[in-house]
Amino acid sequence: MFLAIALTMAIVLAWACVSRALVRWSVTEPVAMIVAGAAVGLTDREWLLETIDTGTALRVVEFGLALFLFNDATEIRERVARNTGVTRMLVAFVVSIVVATVVGRFVLGLDSWPLLLIVACIVMPTDLVPAQSILRDNRITKRVRDTLNVESGLNDGLVAPIMLFALEAYRRAIDSEDALGALGHAVAAVAKSVLVGVPIGIAAGVGLSAAAARGWTDPRTVRCGILAIPVLTFTLAILIDGNGFVAAFLAGIAYRATHRDIPDEPLELTERLGQFLGLSLWFVVGAIAMAGPWLHWTVVVYGLLALTLFRMVPTWLALIGSRFTLSERVMLCALGPRGVASIVFGLLAMNSMADSPDTELVVGVTLVVVSGSILLHGIGAPVLAARLGRRAAAREGG
Prior knowledge:
Low-confidence stretches: none
Number of helices: 18
Mean pLDDT: 79
Order of helices and strands: HHHHHHHHHHHHHHHHHH
Strand content: under 5%
Number of strands: 0
Largest sheet: none
Shape: globular
Radius of gyration: 21 Å
């Protein structure tokens, strides 16, 4: 454990020293950390997997997801109302989960529906980190960028309870128990998460806003208070056998809903901590790629389908009749990067499956969609934006 932490932090420090220089050569954070992780993974194929497969590692991964979901939830307010495409995109996302589950039965040759649902929950959530240039590219219209940004936050929160149910059903299937018990356990955990996350989020939003209005606090301490929200909700939810990351997501929504103007927006600390944890996760992906098993061709095919048709077809159908232009629809269909959410859900599944042979499948699909997304979306997004931008300019000029 300590060796893994030390190596990861040393590489993060090295990246901090040369990040700007490397970005000029299109070496982004995920690429740099995956390469570094792969180099370390070549030295020993056992120590990292043993470190990851522990109860402590599971809690760290869960907290990382809780922090990411809290940050995503705080960005949702007001944007949903402005973007008519968000609801359509969420409908398309749910359909894509169903498609990934059903098609996976034939491509992967599996009969276990809990395992198929777990795999679908890993490969379908979007994350803009592998293609951050999307958010800064003015050739992509603002409403497309906003829709993609909000969608990536909402679908992570939406898939979390589904993943919880699928993992519980998988464990009970191994023990020859019925799925109804798994559903009951998942519903109970989500209910407890609601009872923890919503009240804490409301209390934090009202309390911090009132304190700021009366001049009782300052931005530095407010930042620490904001960071305490996901930590508090996560730990309390775990204590009462709830789900920590669902509680943190709901706390983020509740906090933003009751949030009023606070000087010097204090979310920077939680965002930076999330970015820091994300670097470590990319490093882990690179190391597992070297230490993990050989990929079967069906896993590669399934991962590529998840990155393309499983998203594109439902999204295109959901956008029929919307206000988006043809170019914007193409963008929304094509730009669905996979990143931190897929990594975290994959690691959760690995820990939950223990010594099951299905772990190999989980590792494989996670590696394919994450590494494939870096290539497909990280490189392809600017190319697609440039091409559609030229077509739009040509139409305006004509």
